[in-house]
Amino acid sequence: MFVWSYWMTIFTSPASPSKEFCLSNSEKERYEKEFSQERQQEILRRAARDLPIYTTSASKSKKNKSSAFLPKEFLKYAIRYCERCQLIKPDRAHHCSACDMCVRKMDHHCPWVNNCVGFSNYKFFLLFLLYSLLYCLFVATTVLQYFIKFWTNELSDTRAKFHILFLFFVSTMFFISVLSLLSYHCWLVGKNRTTIESFRAPTFSYGPDGNGFSLGCSKNWRQVFGDEKKYWLLPIFSSQGDGCSFPTRLVGTDPEQASVSNHSENTRSIGSNPPFPIKPLSESKNRLLDSEPQWLENGSEEGVVRSGL
After folding, report:
1. pLDDT above 60: residue 291
2. SS3 letters for the chain?
3. What pTM does this model have?
4. What is the C-alpha to C-alpha distance for residues 283 and 285, in angstroms, rounded to an integer?
5. Cβ distance 215 to 254 under 8 Å?
6. Is 110 a catalytic residue?
7. CA distance 309 to 146
8. What does R_g of the chain's alpha carbons equal in angstroms?
9. Which of 110, 186, 217, 244 is an active site residue?
10. Which of 5, 96, 159, 203 is the most exposed place for a label (fewest CB within 10 A)?
């Protein structure tokens, strides 16, 4: 299982955004001819009108916190666009300079596996850490009795005693290191965050929110490992969704992580409209939506109400 997980983590190619996020030839031509950032953003807003995008870059015309309550014409939300790949970045997607491509739900680029860890192989990476931890624990426990005999001078004076010392110290050091890394990523899964999002929270229409994609610990876990528990410990792809669109906690509090601060932020988000039309996620695209999405129309803007999240 250790070798299988390691193999899948290395040789699973990072998933790039689908073609619907690429600009058409005419839009690319108009975008490249424009020198004004505002006009370029206008082109990107029209192109992203029917895309399931909830996050933007954190650039606003007003720097104070009260700008979230101003009308939409006073706010400027920048669409996340990759100049290198020439596409609109989906939510949670980032450009990897090492792989030279945009990666869906990018977590980080891991030099130990020489690959980008993202939507397509994040489960395999977690299983690789788990089985590495168990393997180090197995080696340390089996060598422990000989390690004790070495210090009590009960072990015969052979060259094998140096091998025993080496195995015990190396397995213990790797066990501690992998344990801390696995614990951190388990915490990220429970919060539905990536490593990048843990350092820089994604920006929504109401401002940065590190818990914007959190649906509760159980649903967050199923989003990575899938609904069927029999596949959780197998390095077989079972993650939910397509890696381009994710259900968000735009309205309503997280039932398993509700707090007073989150409730106040969500109350503010009800009064603010998204900066551009948003296409809601259908259950056929993402099985995490338990309740049927309700549509609200406010002029030309569209929002999504998920009272169950």
Report:
1. no
2. CHHHHHHHHHHCCCCCCCHHHECCHHHHHHHHHCCCHHHHHHHHHHHCCCCCCCCEECCCCCCCHHHHHCCHHHCCCECCEECCCCEECCCCCEEECCCCEEECCCCEEECCCCEEECCCCHHHHHHHHHHHHHHHHHHHHHHHHHHHHHHCCCCCCCCHHHHHHHHHHHHHHHHHHHHHHHHHHHHHHHHCCCHHHHHCCCEECCEECCCCCCCCHHHHHHHHHCCCHHHCCCCCCCCCCCCCCCCCCCCCCCCCCCCHHHHHHHHHHHHCCCCCCCCCCCCCCCCCCCCCCEEEEECCEEEEECCCC
3. 0.74
4. 5
5. yes
6. yes
7. 54
8. 24
9. 110
10. 159
Cα separation, 49 vs 133, in Å, equals 45
Q: Is 153 left (phi over 0), alpha (psi -120 to 50) or beta?
A: left
In Å, how far are 35, 44, 78, 222 from 38, measured between CA atoms?
Answer: 9, 10, 9, 40
Tens digit of each residue's pLDDT (9 = 90 or more) over 112-169 = 899 999 999 999 999 999 999 999 999 999 988 888 877 777 767 667 777 888 888 9
**64-108 tens-digit pLDDT:** 443 444 344 434 578 999 999 999 999 999 999 999 999 999 999
Tokens of 181: 């890394």
- The total number of residues shown for the chain amounts to 309
